[in-house]
Amino acid sequence: MATPTQWLQGARPRTLPNAIAPVVAGVGSALWLVGGFGEISWWKAALALIVALALIVGVNFANDYSDGVRGTDDDRVGPMRLVGSGAASPGAVKAAAFICFGVGAVCGLILAIATAWWLVVVGAVCIAAAWFYTGGQRPYGYIGLGEVAVFTFFGPVAVLGTQFVTADRIDWVGAVCGVAVGAISSSVLVVNNLRDIPSDTESGKITLAVRIGDARTRILFGVLLAVPLVASVVLVAATPWALVGLLAAPLIVVAYRPVQAGATGPGLIPSLGKAGLAMLAWSVLTAVALAVG
Predict the structure, then answer these.
(1) Given this structure, which CATH class describes domain 14-292?
(2) DSSP character for 169?
(3) Is the separation of the CB atoms in 190 and 220 below 8 Å?
(4) Are 199 and 75 in contact (CB under 8 A)?
(5) What is the structure's pLDDT at 75?
(6) What is the pTM of this model?
(7) Looking at residue 74, what is its pLDDT?
């Protein structure tokens, strides 16, 4: 039986900014759109946050289960894997994943009933994407599409979804924030897969990093980190306060340094955490700027 601490490590708490940031950016976009704190639905914002958190923890457990039973995690650098390390049985980890998906589904259903029925379809697609990332007979994460999924679901889908359920409509500001958050969220997976190129290559997991190679993956990481800074400049068309988002630049630089310096293996782990913090910082700063604007 895994200990509570091991279960917490298996949930990969460092990935939680990937769930929190798009909801924060979505709420900021909604505030800009409706023009006041009293004009958006805060209880829906809270449910959207629960959905995002449930999905990301669920996908982390699902990845742990699927990679563990395939043997991909037998020789892995980074956070503890419950199945790969033998700390928990595959069945227990799979059950934990589906419990998280269930929590997200229930909260998402409430949002759909209160907002729009077609959100049920969006939620079902999100849960399917979370499972089939590494699950099923042909997981898309094993053919280099993981970054595309992370960009899509933790970027435009999550940001615009939050904006829609809280403000009843979306606009170009939400779309720009969605692209920015999606890019930096995807960068977290990029550097994670950069770290795992040797083990993934050996196990047959063909991630995007394995496909394009070490050098190009490092360039891609830098480009994705720069997108939120460009977005801050674009959002000046909505409000000059958007430039406040540029204050996240130091964290972005710190996240990029190990990658730029050619770090490998455990040396890339700090970039994972710093990229997540940079994403959260940019989202909070931008949300505040949009609210003030």
Answers:
(1) mainly alpha
(2) S
(3) yes
(4) yes
(5) 60
(6) 0.93
(7) 56
Residue type (1 letter), 37: F
DSSP 58-104: HHHHHHHHHHHHHTTTTT--SS--HHHHTSS-HHHHHHHHHHHHHHH
User: What spatial distance separates the first Cα and last Cα of the chain, rounded to whole Å?
Assistant: 51
Contacts 24+ apart (CB under 8 A), 257-260: 259/191, 259/194, 259/218, 259/221, 259/222, 260/218, 260/222
Per-residue pLDDT, 258 = 95
Residues of the chain with pLDDT under 50: none
Q: Return the domain boundaries, the chain.
A: 14-292
3-state secondary structure 107-151: HHHHHHHHCCCCHHHHHHHHHHHHHHCCCCCCCHHHHCCHHHHHH
Residue whose C-alpha is closest to residue 154's, from 279, 285, 244? 279
Question: Per-residue b/e over 260-276, b at no fewer than 16 CB within 10 Å?
Answer: eeebeeeebbbbbebbb
